[in-house]
Write a structure and sequence with these properties.
386 residues, single chain, 11 helices, elongated, alpha/beta, Purple Acid Phosphatase, chain A, domain 2, six-stranded mixed sheet
Amino acid sequence: MPARIVHTADVHLDAAFAGLGAGKGPIKRQAIRDTFRKIIADAVEWPADIVIIAGDLFEIEHVSPDTVPFLAAEFRRLKDIPVVIAPGNHDPYIADGVYALTDWPSNVHVFGRTTEGLLRFPSAGISVSGFAHTSRHMEGRLLDLVGPAREDGLIPVLAVHASRESGGSSVRSGDDIWLAFTDDELASLGYRYTALGHYHNPDNIEKAGRIIGSYPGAPEGLNFSEIGRRHYSRVTLERESVEVERVPVSHIDYLDVSVDCGNFQTRQQFFDAVGNLGVNSPGRVIVRVVATGRVAPGFNISAELPEDIRQPFFHLAVDDKTVPGYDWAEIERENTLRAEVARRLGESIAAAAEGDRAMLEQARIWAIEALEGRPIELPPEVLRVD
C-alpha cells in the first residue's frame, strides 16, 4: 500500500500584516488559521497516513497566547494520524520556546535539540528523519547535519527546513540561505522523498526523471512575492514512485494586475480602469495595481483611489511605474536652464554603462519636474547618506 503524506510548511501563524491598514491584519491572520484548519480537515478526509510540517509553522517573535491551544486542538482532530514537525528558522526549537515547553498531543512528534532524529511509522510503511533549527540563523550545509537514509525495511523520508542552493522557481537572497544543499547533494542522501520548507513558492526537485523532494510553498500568501492561489501537497509514496499533488487551500490571495496608462489624459481614466478590472472574488484578494506606460508630463495618479473602487477588495494598492513622456530633443533646443540640465544629463546617459542608465534617466525626469515646480517623492534609497 502507498504511504499518503500531507506535506505543508511555512504557515507563519501570527505573521504581521501592518501594510494592509487598520483592522485588516487580524483578518488576514485568521485567514491563515482557517487555511491551516482546512489542511487538517483534508488530512482526515483523504485520509492521510501522516502529516509533515517542514518548519515555520508560526513566528516565534509574534506567537500569540492562544496559538498553542489552537494548534493542540487541531492536532487532536487528527486522532491517530501522526504529525511530524521539523522546526525552521522562524519557529526554532529552543530551550524556553513553544516547542520545548508545550505538552503536545501524543500524535505530535517534534524534532528537537538532538543532531538528527528518526521516527518509525510501520503502519504507514515509512520512517521519517529530520532536523530542527535551534536558532534563527543556522549556518552550515545540510549534509553537515543530516546523515544518509537508513535502510530498515521502511521507505525513508526526510523532513527539513532548508535552502535549495540553485535551480527551481524559488530563489532566496544571500542573507536568507540556511542549511544549503544542491540537488546532487540531496540525491546522495538516498531518501525516497524529502519534505522541505523555507521557500514560499511550490517547487519539485527531480533527479533521473523522478521527484526526490519538494517545497509545497506557503499555504496562505504572505506578500506580493506569493501571487495567486496557495497550496499544500498530497504526496503518494511508494518504493518506485512519488506523486505530488498541489491542493489549493488559501483564503485571501495576493494578485498583481497591470494597467497601461499610455493613452490616459486624466486621473479619472485610471480610476475607471481600476474599477473595471473584473477581478474574480474581489472581496478575498489583496490587489496591487501596477500602473505602466509613458504618460503626458504632469499626469499624476498619486491621489487616493475613491472608496467605491477600493471597497469591493480586501485591500487595494497602487504601484506607479508610469514614465513622463518628455520630448527631450525639443526641450534641449530651448534657451533655458531646463534645457541645459536636460542636455547635461542626456550626455551622462549616453556615456553611462548599461546598469547605470535607468537610474540616470529617472534622475533626469526628477530634475525637470523639480524645475517645473512639480512635487516629487524620492524613494528612501535616494535620500540615504552613507
